[in-house]
């Protein structure tokens, strides 16, 4: 019969007590403790940072923790024996024993799901529960057992530097409209050059892939991890492509895509703009960019002052009454451009006199 995890733990504790009593009876001085980092903590950090180790995030007593399943830990240790070399003298331990040591060193905490009943409309319990609670017996188990990391994950140096640099970059982006003209040009051409480099690399690798796939029937992707989401920085810029282990494509598919590519190139060449249209488009785009780059807060302030002067120089109308009872209206503008007097009224009266004579003649 195999011993359970609790019995194994009690056996190890009893052996430790006996060894301790033996050491006290002997006259040999105790060994000095290793001042280096704990090997089991190094092992735990490597396992936690490994890309193939599956884990999730959940809430444990109002604290957000990263946790994993017991069976996933056992399978991971079995599939990655190279990580056991970090334990040096303890590398022969099994996955269950290693997990118990991590629990004893408070690097792991065994948890249990809060909701232990199947919810209405569900057929089974959630594989990765969102809420956990601490389990009473802190012993490793594979069957429906969850374990949360109890240590703070170490952050790389570049993340710490980036956390200080990013607010400064954000503030600089917000203040871009008030940058000097030379700084605006540097930012504009740097961003445009970076985008051009990215699109050039993507188009170049696509052309190489299509050419080799049509001619030789091989799949060759240069910079194979350039679009990978989970790739590290070193893997992202890996130039040499991976070996093509898939089956060779049929010649009918290669001929079909070759014909489609030729037709696409012919359509683009037929509808390509001429030199005059290209020049007009370039001029229009250049004008838009110049309007953005040549903006200056002093010009904006001068425009506001001109608008204010125009409002202050409003038209003033003076109304006076003459000795004969006529009303003289004089319109005076502050800049002295226009002036209207009573002469316009007299001209209107003279124009109306012939109509009165015609009316009297018809009456007679």
From TrEMBL:
Name of this chain's protein: Translocation protein SEC62
- Protein family per UniProt: Belongs to the SEC62 family.
The biased composition feature labelled Polar residues covers 18-28
Q: Which GO terms describe its cellular component?
A: endoplasmic reticulum membrane
Q: Which Pfam families match?
A: Sec62
Name where it mostly resides. Answer: endoplasmic reticulum
Please give the organism: Aquilegia coerulea (Rocky mountain columbine)
| Coiled-coil segments | none
Write out the ranges of the annotated region (Disordered).
Answer: 1-35, 335-364
Q: Does the keyword Endoplasmic reticulum apply?
A: yes
């Amino acid at each position: 019969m195999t011993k359970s995890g609790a019995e194994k733990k009690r056996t190890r504790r009893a052996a430790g007590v006996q060894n301790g009593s033996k050491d006290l009876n002997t006259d040999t001085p105790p060994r000095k403790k290793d001042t280096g980092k704990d090997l089991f903590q190094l092992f735990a950090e490597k396992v936690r940072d490994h890309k193939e180790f599956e884990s999730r995030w959940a809430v444990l007593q109002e604290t957000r923790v990263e946790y994993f399943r017991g069976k996933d830990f056992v399978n991971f240790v079995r599939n990655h024996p190279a990580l056991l070399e970090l334990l040096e003298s303890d590398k022969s331990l099994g996955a269950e024993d290693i997990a118990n040591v991590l629990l004893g060193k408070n690097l792991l905490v065994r948890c249990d799901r809060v909701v232990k009943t199947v919810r209405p409309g569900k057929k089974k319990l959630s594989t990765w529960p969102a809420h956990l609670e601490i389990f009473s017996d802190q012993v490793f188990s594979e069957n429906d057992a969850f374990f949360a990391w109890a240590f703070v994950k170490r952050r790389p140096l570049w993340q710490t530097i980036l956390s200080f640099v990013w607010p400064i970059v954000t503030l600089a982006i917000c203040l871009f409209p008030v940058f000097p003209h030379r700084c605006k040009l540097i930012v504009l051409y740097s961003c445009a050059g970076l985008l051009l480099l990215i699109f050039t690399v993507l188009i170049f690798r696509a052309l190489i892939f299509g050419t080799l796939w049509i001619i030789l029937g091989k799949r060759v992707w240069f910079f194979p991890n350039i679009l990978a989401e989970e790739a590290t920085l070193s893997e992202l810029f890996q130039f040499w492509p991976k070996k093509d282990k898939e089956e060779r494509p049929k010649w009918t598919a290669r001929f079909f895509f070759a014909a489609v590519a030729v037709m696409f190139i012919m359509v683009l060449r037929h509808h390509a703009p001429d030199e005059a249209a290209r020049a007009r488009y370039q001029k229009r785009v250049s004008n838009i960019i110049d309007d953005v780059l040549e903006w200056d807060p002093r010009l904006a302030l001068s425009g506001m002052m001109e608008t204010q002067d125009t409002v202050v120089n409003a038209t003033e109308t003076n109304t006076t009454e003459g000795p004969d009872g006529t009303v003289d209206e004089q319109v005076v503008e502050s800049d002295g451009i226009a002036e209207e007097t009573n002469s316009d009224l007299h001209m209107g009266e003279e124009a109306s006199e012939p109509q009165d004579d015609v009316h009297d003649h018809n009456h007679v």
